[in-house]
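User: For documentation purposes, I need each entry recorded in a consistent format: the amino acid sequence on its own, followed directly by the corresponding structure tokens. There are two entries in this batch. Please keep commentary to a minimum and don't merge the entries.

Assistant: Recorded as requested. Entry 1:
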Amino acid sequence: MAIFACLLWSSAFVAGKKALEHQTPLNLAGTRFVLAGLLQIPLCGSLMAPFRLLRKEFATVLLVSLFHTIYLYATFFIGLSWVRGAEGAIMIGVGPLASALMAHLLMRDDKMKRQTMTGIGLGMSGVILISLATKPWNPVGLKEFFGLMLLLSGGFVSAIGNVVVAKRKGGLHPVALNSAQMLLGGVVLLLIARPFEGAPKLALPASYYGTLLWLAAISATAFAIWFHLLSKIKVSKLNLWKFIMPLGGAILSWIFLPGESPTLTSLIGMALIVSGIVVGQLDRKPTPGNAGR
């Protein structure tokens, strides 16, 4: 299930770049998540389930929406509009390392070991390498550098959102929670977009609406799976599987986006991030003092 969710997310980099050719970033994000939230309502057990959850657990839904939708995807689409799809996918690959760090800081039963610290060091080396390769000291490179930093910040904020969901293990229906937080987040993003980007463009080609539907389906499916898994598996262990995203996203970008091809720097950076994730999240044997806990 985790592999399937990550493969879906991998395709979002190409689809997002294509959709951004026709729609502004915040309007695209808001429209995507309102549609994704609506798509999930029939799977919530009741048509009113997301709205009842929104009323009864407003603080939790708001926190999850802030971390997983509002901030994460505002920065994702703005950042993606400033960077190449492959570099964006590789930068998102730091997410598992961010999740391990946030779980260590915010959860008592999910602490990092020495190999996790080593993994974070390797992964951050890859991030620094890719960031410097954008040449932030010149105007063109500076814009791409800031785009990468936006994507990086979204990864850390999403990691905090993972902890929020994990701390509510078994307490909330995962599909209803996902639907409610996406509906709320989508509406907020559209409201934020209005003074900066105006109303969403409507007279757009059919290919745009096909891409928008695919992006919404990705969100509806992958996040519902992820929230379900977060109720059963530790944050740091589950997020190991996200190493699939930089690989899949970069490869798809190189194949389908014109003008994008692998560079030695991007390949080395990807290798460092993926090796950091693998080293940092290797199965850890319990020490005698922790056995049975």
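Entry 2:
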Amino acid sequence: MTDAARVLELLVTRGETLAVAESLTGGLVAAELTSVPGASRSFLGSVTAYATPLKRELLGVDGALLAERGAVDPEVVRQMATGVRRLLGADWAVATTGVAGPDPQDGNPVGTVFVAVAGPDGAECTAALRLNGGRTDIRKESVRNVLALLSDELRKNASAQDTEQNGGN
């Protein structure tokens, strides 16, 4: 079973939905999710905000943050995830931003990637990645990593809910 299939299965079981905000992956996360039969049961849609102004205009990323740090930043990717979650009305969202190459961007070397997850009850997680290889490899690994991060967060969130429902501390 693929990472995308595992994530979608967890979401369907929980009755929850997913939205995606992508930059460097340019739609690859959404394509991976929609390659799974039945994805529409939990996947709502995506925004590919490749151009930096779209991150601000569509996803609500703070303009001052973008001006100060550029688009390749952990706080930017966190805001992308929370923004697309709000915009599409999803329970969960993931986001990707980074430098796939061939050239550095905003002082960040090729292979610098940030991925994020935003979920219900303030659940948020961001990961910084240093990926090797060419542009295609970096983009594919970014997809794999963001789906793995979401899978981990869904499992942690489920464990926390089980503990609360069963009277744990």
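Summary note for entry 2:
The helical segments are 3-14, 28-34, 52-57, 63-69, 74-88, 135-165.
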